[in-house]
Amino acid sequence: MSLLEDDLSCPVCTDVFREPVLLSCGHSFCRQCINDHWTASGSRSCPVCRQLSPQEPLSNLGLRNACETYLKERRSEKQRDDEPKCHIHGEKLQLFCKIDEMPICSQCKKGAHRYHKTQTLQQSVRQRKEKLKAALCSAEKTMSSLKNGTTQDAEVSRYIQFQTLQTEKMLKEEFKKLHQFLKKEEEGRIAVLNREEKDKRGRINSIIQGRIRSLSDMIREVEEEIKEDDIDFLQNYTSMMSRIECALLEPMLCSESLIDVPKHLGNLKYKVWKNMKDVCPYYPLALNPNTAPPCFSVSDDLTSVTSCVHQRDNTNPLYRNCMVLGNVGYGDGVHTFTVEVGNSRHWTVGVCLEPLSLVYGLKRDGDLYHLLTSQIMFKMKANPKAVRVKVEDYYDLWFRRWRKVTFFDAKTDCRFAEMSRVPLGRRLLPFVIPGERAGPLRVVPADVTLTHEQTEQKLSFIQRYRVCFLFGFGFVMVCFLYYYGDFDTGNTMSDRANESVSYL
């Protein structure tokens, strides 16, 4: 502790004076310290000289100013000691390197940062504080927009709610159709069962009525013959017993007389599902409305898309494309989908790599057809009403595996365009683009679907027998070299034999 700090310290608390007061004896103390001392001792004596001070102590303004000045200088000195310094040169960091984004000292400026752009540390701090304030203003505006519900997040939230309501409505309508179909199917099958019951019970009732009439006639005849005289009765006894026994015989009924239960319940669910396929077609591709721009309208069943003249309400705030993508991506194997284009003269169909990069599609613009990602343009004599797109794997001459995209006229099954050397390893997403003010593009339901196992068998045929092909080719080459090598060797040996004979 320095001498100056000793002079400015309270004798009671030994700390720098806080609100110093002066007693009548001339000694100074902190106001709180002298009050606490007097309260504890019970007398108003000076803690130093024990002299009584009947008057109230006076504020020592000069001493208070001196203490405040001393404390201020001590804080400044402490701040200077706590300032970070260059860990290399030990000097105060006064500059800021704009290249390395770090504070430096004057020695660093002369050395490693000689050719770097620098500015004073205060200027750098001021500029960055201004940038932070601007960023904070943007953050405050964003927060205000979030509270007011005017940001894109709020739009997405409202659109999700709209999608949920629309989807729920469509689900109810579709299941209502299914319920109606099942109800109609149930009523029809119960009606068939009731008709069969009526028919077969009518036959049994006819047999019963016939037997009743037959037995009634037989009983009446036998009763009359019983009344005859004894001789006639005995002569007719055998025939009467035969008639009674024949009348009592049960008719021979087979299982066909009963309800044909297997016809009604056998594979019932499958039969209903088979009939349901007529009203519930399978579409190999469903259009994803989340990828449709505001100028396109996707049907409720996700099977067709039309270009709109006016922008739709409640549009998707997250759309990023100018096309409508399919809901499935195609990997390795054979994949096919058909799009009905009708008489539209402006449309585009095809596939694109995921994520959206290269596009392998066919575009019609009036009478011209254009293969995307290439400069090939052509015309067709008969314009297709439906285009089938087929994606499949193939091997080139060097047994390298690729994919190709082929376009067919779905009606004639005629191939009219093809794009090869499509890379593997990334999925291909189907897409459609309807032209402006043109008819809708519709996905055609599939009649036959190919199972995964069949697909793998068709795809892996060449791959499985590739080794056989290579082995066969190698075997032919070895035989070829062996044959011609042996022929040349034979000629050489005969020539040498002739030379030896001549020598002898």
UniProtKB/TrEMBL annotation:
It comes from the Eukaryota. GO terms for molecular function: ubiquitin-protein transferase activity; zinc ion binding. InterPro entries: B30.2/SPRY (IPR001870), B30.2/SPRY_sf (IPR043136), ConA-like_dom_sf (IPR013320), TRIM/RBCC (IPR050143), Ubox_domain (IPR003613), Znf-RING_euk (IPR027370), Znf_B-box (IPR000315), Znf_RING (IPR001841). Coiled coil: none annotated. Pfam families: zf-B_box, zf-RING_UBOX. Residues 265-450 form the B30.2/SPRY domain. Residues 81-121 form the B box-type domain. Residues 10-50 form the RING-type domain. The chain crosses the membrane at residues 467-485. The keyword Metal-binding applies. CDD domains: Bbox2_TRIM16-like. Keywords: Membrane, Metal-binding, Transmembrane, Transmembrane helix, Zinc, Zinc-finger. SMART domains: BBOX, RING, Ubox. GO terms for biological process: protein ubiquitination. PANTHER family: E3 UBIQUITIN-PROTEIN LIGASE TRIM (PTHR24103). This is Zinc-binding protein A33. It comes from Triplophysa rosa (Cave loach).
